[in-house]
Amino acid sequence: MSGPISHHNPGEGESSPPTEEATADQKAQMEQAYAQMRRKLRMTRLAEDIGHKIMVLSGKGGVGKSTVATGLALSLARQGKKVGILDIDITGPNIPKMLGIEDTELHVEDSQIHPADGPSGLKVMSMAFLLEDPDKPVIWRGPIKLGAIQQFIGDVAWGKLDALIIDFPPGTSDEPLTVAQSLPNIDGMVIVTTPQDVALLDSRKSINFSKTVKIPVLGVVENMSGYTIRGSAQPNSKVSVMGPQGIPLEATSNDDGDWSVTIDLFKQGGGESAAEEFEVPFLGSLPFDPGIVRGGDDGVHRIVAEPEGETAKAFDTVVENLLAQLAKGEDDAPEIL
Ligand SMILES: Nc1ncnc2c1ncn2[C@@H]1O[C@H](COP(=O)(O)OP(=O)(O)OP(=O)(O)O)[C@@H](O)[C@H]1O
Ligand SMILES: [Mg+2]
Q1: Which residues contact 74 (CB under 8 A, 6 or more apart)?
Q2: How far apart are CA 74 and CA 322, in angstroms?
Q3: What is the 3-state secondary structure (H, E, C) of 196-255?
Q4: Are 38 and 140 in contact (CB under 8 A)?
Q5: How far is the CA of 100 from the centre of ligand 1 (A)?
Q6: Whose CA is nearest to atom 25 of ligand 1?
Q7: Is residue 87 lining ligand 1, measured as CB closer than 6 Å?
Q8: Poorest-confidence range of 114-123, 132-141, 222-231?
């Protein structure tokens, strides 16, 4: 037999005093375990204080997740609910800008961060408030990013809320997984898609992700669904509008002479058919509205700028359907919303 021979007997050395290194190691491990326990406790308390926790996801970027998350939160807040919005996009947070509150300085008390105040009493938390330079990209390495997200959720003093809307970066990577695993009792996820095939394909991934983490899909929202042109003409007359690719679109004006034509910028109904295929609810569609882009740039969300407008009404319908889904999921739980 070659190689070193071990003279170690089982049991030997167990009673010998621990080395300094071993004690430091044990101490560090214990501290880590305590920190984890405290965080878990905070998460549980948070979960109890917040009536409904809703994740907003999409497979593809730029489909309007943040616009939709903010719109849902504002629509709920306008109904008198206590609502919070958590912008978990830690590398490119943009919700404070959408709401025109990016210059808010957050207040810290008892090592808890107090969220910023948005329109209609909305409470807003975003990494954007904590970044020195919002234009400088933040690069997080995996484990640090996950720790930061957990801390970010657990250290915020939301108080009692009827609902918390959580906005994510695109995809189903680390961020939604960390939240799904750390925050107990999440009601479900809302999947945002545009009617395009590629966005739909990616939203299928989100639906599969929901199965993996065992969090239900509350529904699919189709964003940028169609663009409506309006005009007036002689009452009850035919109007022809040149649509995309030179194809004329016909409309008939009503008794007051008003007419409207909806152009399917991408294609309509894709969100609804994807929802059907996956047997998940369809919550509604939101029109393409150039005012949303302007509002996003000016920091006045479309719902705030025009609370009775077509877009605000479309959001209200989506929220109504969402509330119906939430109510279904909690037949035996106390009614909060
Ligand atoms: N219904 C809409 N009509 C017109 N423009 C819209 C609509 N929804 C979103 N937008 C615009 O599309 C762009 C992307 O929207 P948003 O930032 O909400 O998408 P996102 O999915 O959150 O993006 P990211 O993947 O980068 O997080 C923005 O300029 C926004 O103003
Ligand atoms: Mg976004």
Answers
A1: 119, 120, 122, 301, 303, 304, 315
A2: 14
A3: CHHHHHHHHHHHHHHHHHCCCEEEEEECCCCEEEEEECCCCCEEEEECHHHCEEEEECCC
A4: no
A5: 16
A6: 61
A7: no
A8: 132-141
**Which CATH class for the 34-224+266-329 domain?**
alpha beta
Residue 109 backbone dihedrals phi, psi, to 5 degrees: -140, 135
pLDDT in tens, 205-227: 888 888 888 999 999 999 988 77
What is the domain partition of the chain in residue ranges? 34-224+266-329, 227-263
Ligand 1 within 6 A of CB of 53: no
Question: How far does residue 45's CA lie from ligand 2's centre (Å)?
Answer: 28
Identify the pLDDT of residue 114. 94
Instruction: Among 55, 65, 67, 74, name the best residue to mutate to test ligand 1's pocket (greatest count of ligand atoms within 8 A of Cβ).
Output: 67
In this predicted model, what pLDDT tens digit does every residue of 182-211 receive, in sequence order? 888 999 999 998 887 666 777 778 888 888
**Residue 36 C-alpha to ligand 2 middle, in angstroms?**
29
Contact 123, 83 (CB under 8 A): yes
| Count of CB atoms situated within 10 Å of the CB of 69 | 27
- Overall size of the chain counted in residues: 337
